[in-house]
Write a structure and sequence with these properties.
heterodimer; A: alpha+beta; Alpha-Beta Plaits; 3-stranded mixed β-sheet; two-stranded antiparallel sheet; 6 helices; B: alpha/beta; Rossmann fold; Dimethylsulfoxide Reductase, domain 2; 6-stranded mixed β-sheet; 6-stranded mixed β-barrel; 38 strands; metal-binding (chain A)
Chain lengths: 179, 816
């Protein structure tokens, strides 16, 4: 089975943070706990400014450092490429958080364990879209098999505001504004 | 416990259409998954295939956070009394700082009823002020109460346009529908930011118009998210100077127009559909010299309203003014769209008429792809009558209010303190308010001159609030009564954009001791000696809901009339235990109950399109407007008379420019010499996605997502040594507030963006607000048609030398 990935149309994203909130609701997260976060970047200068928004969660990487560095095997990659976690094995050591360049893993204070985007795997099993995808009022998020996404939307050599893609090989396709 | 939470998460529940009822400027579908009486999560519209023509009505960031509202740790759970309250108020200065004590419903309604009786006997019913809600049903049975009124969100679009021939933009629209917007070649977004102010589908609809080829010019003091998404050009303008800018554009057209070689003005349209443009077009009996064209040319006042003149006021370069004017005038199909924000300006009564006048000059009205008018709230980019709507509940109207006094929002706090209010032209009346009942709304937070409002609340003898939280209204009350949210009620309809109707039903039982507002009013009425039927009639909540369903209507296929929406069978009536008649409609009751939405299927060129004032333009004599002349009135004596009659300020019959009180010009000590004054900056109050007005301000998920920083321009920040992240104090002549600075290139220098609706948090020792409450900076200054002119406020800011503010998300909730 292939590899799941996300597509983000950052030309159309208005930075409303609806995906961030839908994700919090789905995963019942507290303040300070974000599996998906929308970041704002401003630039240019008056009277020609610009503002960019980047929505990001776990990128379910090909070479996930979190999995590589997890000492207990709690963090693992599923057959469909989703990087998932197993709370029965997690000891809350935060190695995964330290390893990930995208702040994917999140420490849940009350549980003393790490969790993260699991691609709404329970919704996928019911043939439903991940919470962030069905939440987007601008239809700027898509998902699916990464090869199909690449075919449909192209590939990225690099993504503005992102670390070097070669480090972990994230499974996302991003449509960026031309600047 | 964690185990229970785990079980809840793994159980499958029932999806129930849940109300998303807020005054946010949009309307969407929300559904709640309920397991064992608890909402596990929410989702939005998945009831239809999603397409640009027929989009799912997806809920925004606020709707998606609604579990944090309904289940907020700070929800009001029980009736509460201010600890040191006693009849007559006791130490009234303690309001806002006293402790809260839980009391029974019996005691709470007893106190409210006895204070109503005491105050009306000691003073009169003219001493009881109601700011909202349905408590009037009880009060009117014992002689009535004083009310409030004003232009609220509309600004000067509220009452004036009826006199000169456009619509106010909420109930009725002067713009075409969203399908026709795709026919426009150029869209001008003049002071509107749907990405923040019109959640749900509007921004997505605008994107379709853009994809269909429209260029977009955004005229706004702030480079908004809408400007980023849609704009081909951003024209930054000083707040409240839009009128001057448009006069400069009108001058350009008058100066450059040549019907043969350079046709810029649509003379045919002006002649057939308007009055007042030039000497020849003046209405009968009017002074011919008082026409618009001569005003623009400065024929009589010696001041031509040239692009240069407009540039000095608006901050837009003269060359840009001319270029935009030509661009609009020489493009075939243009949509001139404006929000209400540029009209939430003191003295702006002539601005909507100016907007209409420019639309008329260019002829961009009443034809496909051509429109001029208000595009905001439910009607954003989608004008026209509703295609589907709910029915009435059948609740009989309450008793008449025997008190006719009503206070203007922008004046009322001052009026109460002074004991005198403006009732009309040369008509001042005494007033002695001693009791305030906040039945709903956020009056103390959202009305002009909040500092005076707080003083009022510390002076009167009794204050009571129905609410969900210790909101600003509740904080300064003696008694607070916990109300249910619509999730805890029987159900109903919510309307929004014209395409869709939203149905919601009971999601959960009332939390703790919360009661419906109707029930609260009924119980207070009973304490006043009346029966429940006398207060609210005898239509049960179930029957009320059924009546709304049975009365729901949808446009017929031909687009000519309405027909019943819902099929009702004898079995439905029996199952519901209500009275009613079977009927044939489009969908069954159970389909409505399951889906929670009915959306009229649209396609370009269908029977449901809307071109505003189309018939009027085709044949103005046969289809006159409801103005005095039947035409669009560039000269409108009726408008000038109406404004004069309100009793504050006066205007001319033609749209002359009147600088705003506390507007751009007032930032100068000497405008001619360009010497800045003590308050050199202007304040705008953008609607902010953390809140719907004031609602959700306490929501922890939204506090995290939207921190509520004050936006300040790089130039102004540099001048004051302020960096992003610094705590700053913002000061006007009316009050002071603290916020964390967000230094940005996205604002025209000289303007700050203080987001609308934060709940005031006074540090009483320092007399300073810490929450960024917009109305702490505004004064109680009424002008024109009773405008609340929030976007005309002036201030300065500086680095705060005291303790840095904590991020709002780290603030303690107001749990009681």
């Amino acid at each position: 089975m292939g590899q799941m990935g996300f597509y983000y149309d950052l030309e159309t994203c208005i930075g409303c943070k609806g995906c961030q909130i839908a994700c919090k609701d789905k995963n019942d997260l507290k303040t300070g706990e974000l599996f998906r976060e929308v970041h704002d970047f401003e630039g240019g200068s008056f009277p020609s400014p610009y503002v960019d928004h980047v929505t990001i969660s776990c990128n379910h990487c090909d070479k996930p450092k979190c999995v590589e560095n997890c000492p207990t095997g709690a963090m693992h990659k599923r057959e469909d490429g989703i990087v998932d976690f197993d709370h029965s094995k997690c000891v809350g050591c935060k190695m995964c958080m330290w390893s990930c360049p995208y702040d994917g893993p999140v420490y849940l204070k009350e549980e003393g364990k790490v969790a993260k985007c699991d691609f709404c795997k329970d919704l996928l099993e019911n043939n439903e879209d991940p919470a962030c995808v069905s939440a987007c009022t601008m239809r700027a998020i898509d998902y699916g098999d990464i090869e199909e996404l690449k075919e449909k939307y192209g590939t990225n050599q690099s993504i503005r505001y992102f670390p070097d893609l070669d480090i972990t090989k994230p499974n996302i396709v991003v449509k960026q504004k031309s600047r | 416990t964690a185990v229970q939470a785990e079980e809840l998460q793994s159980s499958e529940g029932e999806w129930i259409p849940a109300a998303c009822w807020h005054n946010c400027g949009g309307r969407c579908l929300l559904k709640a998954e309920v397991v064992d009486g608890i909402v596990k999560r929410v989702k939005t519209d998945d009831t239809r295939e999603d397409s640009p023509d027929n989009p799912q009505q997806r809920a925004c960031v606020r709707g998606r956070s609604q579990r944090q509202q309904v289940y907020g740790v700070d929800r009001l759970k029980y009736p509460m009394k201010r600890k040191h309250w006693e009849p007559g108020g006791g130490n009234k200065e303690l309001r806002g700082n006293d402790e809260w004590v839980r009391i029974s419903w019996d005691e709470a309604t007893g106190i409210v009823a006895s204070e109503i009786e005491r105050i009306r006997n000691k003073y009169s019913n003219r001493s009881i002020l109601v700011t909202g809600g349905d408590i009037g049903r009880a009060l009117n049975l014992v002689g009535g109460h004083v009310g409030t009124w004003g232009t609220t969100s509309w600004g000067s679009w509220r009452w004036g346009p009826a006199y000169f021939g456009l619509q106010e933009g909420y109930f009725e629209h002067s713009i075409n529908d969203r399908m026709d917007l795709r026919n426009s070649q150029l869209i001008v977004l003049w002071g509107l930011n749907p990405a923040w102010s019109s959640p749900g589908s509007p921004t997505y609809n605008f994107l379709q118009a853009k994809k269909a080829g429209a260029r977009v010019i955004v005229i706004d003091p702030m480079y908004s998210e809408s400007a980023e998404l849609l704009g081909d050009e951003w024209v930054p303008v000083h707040p409240g100077t839009d009128h001057a800018l448009m006069l400069g554009m009108a001058h350009t057209l008058i100066e450059e127009d040549d019907p043969d070689s350079n046709p810029l003005i649509d003379w045919d349209f002006l002649k057939s559909c308007t009055v007042g443009f030039d000497q020849e077009m003046m209405p009968e009996g009017a002074d011919k010299e008082a026409n618009f064209k001569d005003y623009v040319l400065g024929t009589h006042d010696g001041q031509p309203k040239t692009a240069e003149w407009a540039s000095e006021i608006s901050g837009v370069e003269a060359g840009v003014i001319r270029r935009i004017a030509r661009d609009i005038a020489s493009t075939n199909r243009v949509a001139l769209l404006t929000g209400w924000a540029p009209a939430r300006i003191k003295n702006s009564d002539s601005w909507p008429q100016m907007f209409m006048t420019f639309g008329a000059m260019t002829g961009h009205m009443a034809q496909p792809g051509r429109m001029t008018g208000v595009s905001c709230h439910f009607g954003t980019g989608n004008g026209g009558p509703r295609l589907v709507m709910g029915g009435g509940s059948g609740v009989p109207p309450g008793a008449e209010n025997d008190v006719s006094d009503s206070l203007v929002h922008a004046e009322m706090w001052d009026a109460i303190l002074k004991g005198e209010y403006t009732a009309g032209y040369n008509d001042k009346r005494d007033i002695d308010i001693q009791m305030i009942y906040h039945g709903m709304g956020a009056t103390l937070q959202t009305r002009d001159g909040q500092s005076k409002g707080i003083d009022v609340h510390k002076n009167v003898e009794f204050v009571v609030t129905n609410g969900h939280f210790i909101t600003t209204n509740a904080k300064y009350s003696d008694i607070v009564l916990p109300a249910t949210t619509p999730w805890e009620r029987e159900g109903g309809f919510n309307v929004g954009n014209r395409d869709a109707l939203f149905y919601y039903r009971n999601v959960i039982d009332p939390l703790f001791e919360c009661k419906d507002d109707a029930q609260i009013t009924t119980e207070i009425g009973m304490k006043l000696g009346f029966t429940a039927e006398e207060v609210y009639g005898d239509v049960s909540p179930r029957q009320q809901l059924f009546n709304q369903i049975a009365g729901a209507q949808v446009i017929n296929k031909a687009g000519t009339d309405y027909e019943p929406l819902v099929t009702i069978t004898d079995k439905d009536i029996t199952e519901w235990g209500v009275e009613g008649e079977p009927q044939k409609g489009r969908i069954t009751v159970s389909e409505l109950e399951e889906k929670g939405v009915y959306q009229v299927e649209r396609k370009p060129g269908d029977n449901y399109g809307y071109i505003a004032q189309e018939a009027f333009r085709k044949d103005p004599e046969a289809n006159p407007l409801e103005t005095a002349t039947g035409k669009l009135e560039i000269y409108s004596e009726a408008l000038a008379e109406y404004v004069k009659g309100i009793g504050f300020t006066e205007i001319d019959p033609i749209p002359t420019y009147n600088p705003a009180t506390e507007g751009y010009e007032d930032t100068y000590k000497n405008f001619q010499a360009k010497e800045k004054g003590d308050y050199p900056l202007q304040v705008i109050n953008p609607h902010y996605l953390r809140r719907a007005h004031t609602i959700f301000d306490n929501n922890p998920w939204l506090r995290e997502a939207w921190p509520n920083d004050v936006y300040v321009s790089t130039a102004d920040a540099r001048e004051r040594g302020v960096k992003s992240g610094d705590t700053v104090v913002i000061e006007s002549k009316h009050g002071k507030t603290l916020r964390i600075a967000h230094v940005t290139e996205r604002l025209i220098p000289g303007t700050i963006g203080l987001m609308h609706g934060a709940w005031v948090e006074m540090d009483e020792e320092k007399d300073i607000d810490k929450a960024g409450s917009d109305n702490i900076l505004t004064g109680a200054i009424a002008t024109g048609q009773a405008i609340s002119g929030w976007n005309s406020t002036i201030c300065d800011f500086r680095k705060w030398e005291g303790k840095d503010l904590k991020l709002d998300k780290l603030w303690e909730p107001r749990t009681v």
